[in-house]
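Quick question: what would this complex look like in 3D?
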Amino acid sequence: MSLYNFPMKAHVYVTLKRTVLDAQGQTIANSLRRLHHPAVTDVRQGKYFVLTLEDSLAHDAAKSEVERIASEVLTNPVIEEFTYTLEN
Amino acid sequence: MSLYNFPMKAHVYVTLKRTVLDAQGQTIANSLRRLHHPAVTDVRQGKYFVLTLEDSLAHDAAKSEVERIASEVLTNPVIEEFTYTLEN
């Protein structure tokens, strides 16, 4: 890896589905109200992953690999959904 | 709130500082190798928050409010750092 060859990174965002109660997020929203931040009407909490990928991986291969990892390993498909971005 | 007036949302991403060991991320990276995803060389895990803000809030006020909430409530400044985006 040369100095000018930054590794490819994938950012994966996993959140509870809209229909699933987010108790932790509601607790944070309530705390914010008590802490005098009334402008926040709702909070949803999720997980955020930064995956560093091998340099040799082509963009398309990286995309399908990240999708597979996100859907099979990082997300519980019963209650969660994910989005991701690839950064090169 | 009319149908055409979507509430403003802030996306806050909290991650461990680069210098802090991310044991959970390393565990995920090891699991991925065992699960035959060798293209992933590193994983960092963080938290992701979606804050829904009051409609009446101006963009600048929203920005400073989100920065205050992220730095004072959502982030432990000793070991974590945050970034955020505002979406209207």
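Answer marked as accepted. The first helix of chain A runs from residue 23 to 34.
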